[in-house]
């Protein structure tokens, strides 16, 4: 099968980087207007006057995933615009290259060996000039662009279907939890266990830190089992070790935390202390199983988050945690509930894994299809 001729990027574009004008964020705040202000990956704001006023192609100079073949690196702009120095500005030469074809070519180009940097890859103008892109005849370029639009539409439909499937798996997870705890709430947490609030040793005293006692922060309480912690404290930081170091099987709940932390629960698989943003619940094992309470917190997550009290941010507290009402069936029933939820969650996780694998495959197929379309002559 024949392939398309490869040419230097500089044969088909004029580079307009010399017209870019850097402007600081502070200066831009004083110049807000109706003109789009563009950066490496898209529009980054508005400004009061344009530098350019024509159809152009912008190619990221830095902060762009150059080595990800499925990620965009270039995009078209039209009309009045201001471009900062994080994007290269290209004018497609009329009669040489179709602008949409140019964007597609730059998005699937091989940037290996051209970009430098470790955490923030950069494509200098000198390296960009070494880029080579496919260049079939102009009419064929437009046929390829139309073909790529069809591929894009199919990919979009596939991504939407996968998004819907992801939503359905989460709905299935929630329905399993709802069904498990739809009985009457006949007791409180305080009646089936002791509730403790943790503490944070002084950061000003190094002797209290980097010790052998695992110490849990609220950010580590994330609907999971805790087998290790990011930090440890010394035994001298504990005024009463028997009441501060909680045994395996203790259920933790985050009372305060950023984002979605508040209201999440965890089970200790190691003895550990924790900070004041968490409550620990040592259950009477003759009354309630830790896993049962853990799943109940998962089922009641949204409700428990809404029941907080505090002046600085919505929060739970030890008293509220003790007063939370919960169903308390016999232990045999609790064990059956835990087993049923675990079995269903295993199925849901398998479904979610298959969906994510399919999403990765769709992205890879999309990138491969675009690459092939750009390098294979169009068949009339």
UniProtKB/TrEMBL annotation:
Annotated Type I restriction modification DNA specificity domain residues: 1-154, 188-335
DNA-binding as UniProt keyword: yes
GO BP of this protein: DNA restriction-modification system
SUPFAM superfamilies reported for this sequence: DNA methylase specificity domain (SSF116734)
Gene Ontology molecular function: any one: DNA binding
Record carries keyword DNA-binding: yes
Keywords, ordered alphabetically: DNA-binding, Restriction system
Family: Belongs to the type-I restriction system S methylase family.
Protein's UniProt name: Unannotated protein
Lineage: unclassified sequences, metagenomes, ecological metagenomes
């Amino acid at each position: 099968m024949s392939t398309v001729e490869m040419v230097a990027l500089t044969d088909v574009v004029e580079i307009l980087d010399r017209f870019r004008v850097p402007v600081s964020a502070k200066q831009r705040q004083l110049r807000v207007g109706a003109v789009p202000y563009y950066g490496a990956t898209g529009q980054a704001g508005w400004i009061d006057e344009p530098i350019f006023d024509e159809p152009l192609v912008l190619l990221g100079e830095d902060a762009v995933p150059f080595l990800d073949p499925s990620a965009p690196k270039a995009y078209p702009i039209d009309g009045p615009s201001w471009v900062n120095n994080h994007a290269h500005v290209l004018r497609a030469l009329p009669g040489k290259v179709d602008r949409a074809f140019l964007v597609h070519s730059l998005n699937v180009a091989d940037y290996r060996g051209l970009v430098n940097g470790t955490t923030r890859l950069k494509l200098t103008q000198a390296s960009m000039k070494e880029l080579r892109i496919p260049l079939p005849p102009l009419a064929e370029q437009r046929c390829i662009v139309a073909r790529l639009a069809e591929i894009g539409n199919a990919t979009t439909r596939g991504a939407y279907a996968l998004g819907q499937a992801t939503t359905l798996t989460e709905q299935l997870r929630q329905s399993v939890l709802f069904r498990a705890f739809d009985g009457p709430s006949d007791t409180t947490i305080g009646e089936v266990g002791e509730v403790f609030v943790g503490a944070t040793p002084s950061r000003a005293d190094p002797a209290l830190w980097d010790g052998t006692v695992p110490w849990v922060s609220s950010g580590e309480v994330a609907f999971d089992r805790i087998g290790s912690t990011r930090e440890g404290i010394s035994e001298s930081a504990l005024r009463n070790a028997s009441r501060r170091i909680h045994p395996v099987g203790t259920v933790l709940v985050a009372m305060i935390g950023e984002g979605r932390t508040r209201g999440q629960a965890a089970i200790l698989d190691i003895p550990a202390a924790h900070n004041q943003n968490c409550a620990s619940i040592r259950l009477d094992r003759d009354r309630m199983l830790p896993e049962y309470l853990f799943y109940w917190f998962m089922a009641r997550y949204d409700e428990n988050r809404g029941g907080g009290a505090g002046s600085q941010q919505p929060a739970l507290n030890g008293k509220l945690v003790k007063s939370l009402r919960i169903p308390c069936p016999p232990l045999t029933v609790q064990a059956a509930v835990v087993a049923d939820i675990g079995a269903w969650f295993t199925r849901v996780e398998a479904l979610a894994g298959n969906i994510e694998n399919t999403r990765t495959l769709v992205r890879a197929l999309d990138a491969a299809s675009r690459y092939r379309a750009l390098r294979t002559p169009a068949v009339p």
